[in-house]
Amino acid sequence: MINLDDRLKKHINLLIERYPQLKVVENEVIQAYLILEECYRNGGKLLVAGNGGSAADSEHIVGELMKGFKNPRKLSDEQRKKLIDVDEELGEILANNLQGTLSAIALDGHVALTTAYMNDCEPLLCFAQQVNGFGKNEDVFLGISTSGNSKNIIYAAITAKAKGMKVIGLTGEKNSKLSEIADVCIKAPQTETYMIQELHLPIYHCLCLMLEDKFWGDK
To answer: Could you tell me what percent of the chain has a pLDDT over 70?
Structure first.
C-alpha cells in the first residue's frame, strides 16, 4: 500500500466502502492521484479525452476541476486585491464569485478545430493534434477508453509521452495498448462497456475530491 496522509486516504476508504469491487485498483487510484498532485504543484494542467460516454466523462471531470466541486474555493487575499485594483466595483463582484481552479481541458469540445483537422488531415489524430498543441512537459494526459484500444486515444497518449507528459489510463479490466503506454492505468474490474463506465465515475470523482481537499482543504 502506498502511503497517503489520512485526510486524503478517507476518500479512498469511502470509495472502497461504497464500491468494494474497486479494492483491486486502490493502489492505481492513489498512483494516479499522486501524478495529478505533482502536475498541479508544478503549474501543469490536465488534458483529458474519450469517445462517446467517455467523452461525456471527460467533460464531467473538467467541470469538477475547473470550479468548486464539494467545497467552495475562495480566492486568496492577493487574488482578490488584484481584481479590485483593476476596477473597484466590478473587481469586488469578481473577487466574491470567482473560484479557485485546477486547470483542465477536455479535448472533445473544440468543434471547429477538430472538424477542420478531421476533414483536412487524419481523423484519428484529432486528439493527438491537440495534445501536440496544448501539451507541456509538466502536464498530464488522461485517456478514457473502456477497451483501452481506442486508436485516437492511443495516438494522443503516444504524443503525450513524446512531449514528456505523464499518461494516466482509465479502462476496463483487460490488458490493452493504453495500459502498456500509460504511467499508471486504472482498470475498472468489468468487461461490459456500460458496467466499466459505471465504475469510472466514482473513480474520477474520488480523484477530484482528493485534489480539491489537497489544494483547498485547509482554506
So the answer is: 98
In this prediction, residue 2 carries a pLDDT of 59
**Selection from 132, 186, 172, 129 nearest residue 152 by Cα:** 129
- Residue 53 CB-density burial (10 A; 0-12 exposed, 13-18 middle, 19+ buried): middle
- Element containing residue 60 per DSSP (H, E): helix 53-65
Task: Reply yes or no on whether the pLDDT at 45 is more than 90.
Answer: yes
How far apart, in whole angstroms, are the C-alpha atoms of residue 56 and residue 112?
A: 18
Query: Strands (DSSP E) along 33-163, which ranges?
Result: 46-49, 104-106, 140-144
Comparing CA positions, the residue from 184, 199, 193 lying closest to residue 18 is 199
HSE, side-chain direction, 13 A CA sphere, residue 178: 30
- Residue type at 188 in one-letter notation: A
Number of residues assigned to the chain: 219
Per-residue pLDDT averaged across 183-208, rounded? 98
pLDDT band at 4 (very low <50, low <70, confident <90, very high): confident
Q: Classify domain 6-66+101-216 at the CATH superfamily level.
A: Glucose-6-phosphate isomerase like protein; domain 1 (3.40.50.10490)
Place of cell 486524503: 8
pTM (two decimals): 0.95
Q: Where are the domains of the chain?
A: 6-66+101-216, 74-100
